[in-house]
Amino acid sequence: MIVILRPDATxxxxxxxxxxxxxLGLTAHVSxxxxxxxxxxxxxxxxxxxxxxxxxxxxxxxxxxxxxYKLVSREFQKEDSVVELKKxxxxxxxxxxxxxxxxxxxxxxxxxxxxxxxxAAGANILRGGAFKPRTSPYDFQGLGEEGLxxxxxxxxxxxxxxxxxxxxxxxxxxMDKYVDVYQIGARNMQNFALLKEVGATxxxxxxxxxxxxxIKDLLxxxxxxxxxxxxxxxxxxxxxxxxxxxxxxxxxINAVPVVKxxxxxxxxxxxxxxTGRWGLVGSIARAAVAAGCDGLMIEVxxxxxxALSDGAQSLVPxxxxxLVKELRAVARAVGRELL
Amino acid sequence: MIVILRPDATxxxxxxxxxxxxxLGLTAHVSxxxxxxxxxxxxxxxxxxxxxxxxxxxxxxxxxxxxxYKLVSREFQKEDSVVELKKxxxxxxxxxxxxxxxxxxxxxxxxxxxxxxxxAAGANILRGGAFKPRTSPYDFQGLGEEGLxxxxxxxxxxxxxxxxxxxxxxxxxxMDKYVDVYQIGARNMQNFALLKEVGATxxxxxxxxxxxxxIKDLLxxxxxxxxxxxxxxxxxxxxxxxxxxxxxxxxxINAVPVVKxxxxxxxxxxxxxxTGRWGLVGSIARAAVAAGCDGLMIEVxxxxxxALSDGAQSLVPxxxxxLVKELRAVARAVGRELL
Amino acid sequence: MIVILRPDATxxxxxxxxxxxxxLGLTAHVSxxxxxxxxxxxxxxxxxxxxxxxxxxxxxxxxxxxxxYKLVSREFQKEDSVVELKKxxxxxxxxxxxxxxxxxxxxxxxxxxxxxxxxAAGANILRGGAFKPRTSPYDFQGLGEEGLxxxxxxxxxxxxxxxxxxxxxxxxxxMDKYVDVYQIGARNMQNFALLKEVGATxxxxxxxxxxxxxIKDLLxxxxxxxxxxxxxxxxxxxxxxxxxxxxxxxxxINAVPVVKxxxxxxxxxxxxxxTGRWGLVGSIARAAVAAGCDGLMIEVxxxxxxALSDGAQSLVPxxxxxLVKELRAVARAVGRELL
Amino acid sequence: MIVILRPDATxxxxxxxxxxxxxLGLTAHVSxxxxxxxxxxxxxxxxxxxxxxxxxxxxxxxxxxxxxYKLVSREFQKEDSVVELKKxxxxxxxxxxxxxxxxxxxxxxxxxxxxxxxxAAGANILRGGAFKPRTSPYDFQGLGEEGLxxxxxxxxxxxxxxxxxxxxxxxxxxMDKYVDVYQIGARNMQNFALLKEVGATxxxxxxxxxxxxxIKDLLxxxxxxxxxxxxxxxxxxxxxxxxxxxxxxxxxINAVPVVKxxxxxxxxxxxxxxTGRWGLVGSIARAAVAAGCDGLMIEVxxxxxxALSDGAQSLVPxxxxxLVKELRAVARAVGRELL
Lengths: 339, 339, 339, 339
What we know:
By secondary structure, chain A is of the alpha/beta class.
């Protein structure tokens, strides 16, 4: 931690801060410049994070030296993490993975039908929501456990891994029986009760970036999960909220290489939510692969006109199949594989 | 709902959309302009909200006519709502209310001491967190039930209403015993499991605006609570996330008059989180009162240097007392009272 | 400037950076912590600002210690600046000033008529655009010199100071003849050719904050003007661009106390652009005065239905007159005067 | 234009609006729904854009039907525009183009040296600034005309097209002699004096998106140039300003497919400014090509440690050469060529 003093800070104020360092078991290095005096605190920065040095008299500003996350950092683990979702289905290695399926699970037959098509196209992971976090209380809230049963059956039949969103810590035992991966949605990225809950399991978790979360915030939320003992975490960039209204969200493509520099965790991109319009999904999916992501999550529906949620951003299976072919070419161009 | 067709939309595509309206029991009014054909759907818009008209062939864009919220709207109820927090302590009427206290409850003695001072200055509501949603898993997470006991005792002793944050739906019965008002924090504004839970009670709820939530999103989250039967809802503006880094958040003062136009619910402003720096709290608190808010939530700590959280934005009691005097003058200047 | 090294930085990389400091005539203080080595550069920071220390091998991050602005800072001048706009009309002292008038100058008669009313209500400064920066090339672009003549005549007749926007450095001599204050609009806040041009005069300049400008950016643009010799600068907060769509812009009320802490320059608030809707202007104008601004700029039009620009955010004179009365009460409540 | 009335709008208010339409020579179609009455205005929407229907009594909201731009739209011209920058060097067709070179022109020798390397790697367009728009008045402002001479000489010698930024309308004749393409920078995207000036020429213009400009704003600024007669316009996405601080800007990759849908103009991506860090440039350049851009603008410097501006985001020539090879593979994977 570095503390910069105000130009009018007194010697007594300086002493008061140095004494504080002492009490905390840290060493304070004082550098007196022409215009400002600077104090470097040497020792474990965690102790300082909870000490509001900004309010000490004479302090102008405080700057942390270390990132506040540890277990998720590249510094903690140099090699890329590879997370196994189901026997034989891994994410984070050379092979890219695609998660595809409808926004909401709407019935067994429709799920099976679309799952067969996305599987044939190249997706190994089936997505589908059973508990839907909807902005309006009057919108379709999902089929609940019935939906979970369908996704489990279809996943088993087609040998696909399955992922569904968890929105309530009380549902974790229920969901544990039915899916291979817990999804934590953007709106719950800082729902710490939920993060602790999935952190106490060993099941893979896909953590989506919140709409106003910095990359650092995303990594801190992942740190919650790892700090409870669960290292099977996949990050997901799905767009942030900006002033632009031409798209539902602004997909932050920069997040892909930034996360790769800062963390060992795999990162998936969701171009469906990242754009909100099916006509843009292909372009952004290709971009994400070229940028170096480890996988994609794409909404696919056989009849978007009748979809109970997110119809506007869902691809029809034919378009999805064509897109995966293009993605394969892009993956190869950047030294990855999409089987 | 208004649907605008693309310039190259065919008659068949138009017919397909009109038939859809028919199936839904709605009437479609078609206006053919020089450059665009427009279709107005007459009938309950709710039916349409879940129908993704954007994906119908030939459609260029879709525009809703009605706001998606109902119970929270001025249209539903013309007069301002007044919420009673505790016998004799109301919010939403001519009298402004101040909620004050430490960010986290740190102990019985310190809470009682600061509570006496804020009460003497003019605050009728005691705030203090027992379960803290912290960005870092390594930071102080609150005293839990122990903290709730303290706030209940202090509130009873000083005849103040009490408010504390609820972050887990499983804690609701526990908290019900101890506090007068549930606070839903910014990070949980779209934690729908939590919203439904507090909606099923009759206890007052203060709902804070999420960091990336539009005012419409805030009203939709409030709608969740009212739609479950609990009309005792207070909204809270506490700053949104923007590109500005000089302050912790950007307090959206516009939200005060906008909410007053759109909704009958009371609105409180939190200048502590809205700025993140105690030196700015006074200026923004005065502005909020002048803008027409119904109350303020302000963090106060007797020794910010030792605060376990949010020390940088906490006022010391002397500054708080001086501020309340100023706020009284501003309140009177705009036709309100602060007792 | 503080440089933080990567954990794997070598001794040679450290030496290379220290040598760089030497070459620049600076002293490098090295602090070796447990997890990171930190280098403080002692000496004039300006030299370093242009040196991209981030690209030196082994560097993790670079943090400036000093603010990049000087002449505009409180550190440079402790007392508030008072800018004289015209004999007897000053801004920045105890008395608040109001700038009012139409968005665009539309004719002599209409300007005179509205000017009389705003003057009677309490405004000493007449605003009106002659060159309009419009988003669309097909919209009304202003009356040009004709408009400037009208504002000069009306200002002289009513003894009001006058302000109009300058959008082209080639117009400065022309405008110099007609108005008392140059306005630099939000879209031109970083039009450095324009800033240098007004910096080379002695005429007062009102500099509006850009839609995506931080407060630091605003101060740096002001620094351009002061650094050329013109200290008669007034800052103006007029709303920033955020994700919120309920208002045209998000007025950043925090900017008022932040600017007051960092700079000696006066700050004016423009609630017309800051909200974009006349129904919100009153509430935000009151808030701005309570927050501590030195003046307001408000659009007033006698017949907003026929206004050639910004009709939606213009007050009619009766509402303006009523508002000024309220503002007087608020000003007094916070120790200021509005004559 | 569609006008939605308030639920309490009177018949007289409705009549007043319909009469207004009449006066403007438009037809008003009135649809009375259960909850709202809607008025569609049939006829040229331009007439209405300047009429502030929002302020008519009884109006709740106003929604435009048509985009405000015309000449830049896909509707105006279906086929992609191809802009010739210099004999044999075109942008907008199947072949991608790369603009590369230093941020600022620093001298003849250094420019020639880096230009040879980027040309050998595959760049046909040489970039370099002679007039630099710097946030600080104390930073290097460019070599001016001297720099322009260098870029002209080097461009002629290597048969590269040249591009440099224009920041003052008074410099246009000067620059006309020296460069093949005018660059309008992000800070000047709404400098309408400058836009009109380049619109009156026939020389190609690259228009960069402003930091807080929506895609619609960008297209409107391009419309300024086309409306003056110059159709040789290239758009450039270079990152927008958001709350994320890990990168200098947030490159909006969605802008690439959105612009392709809405406009016939070519679009270039600038990953150097879009990220602000050279270590991220490669990943984002690959993503941009995969997303479907028509070209890239990349900063390259032989010795970033000594660069007079933007050193942190400049690639060294070896990295640039390696990157172009990768880009070639990605281009081919998406059906484009990079020669």
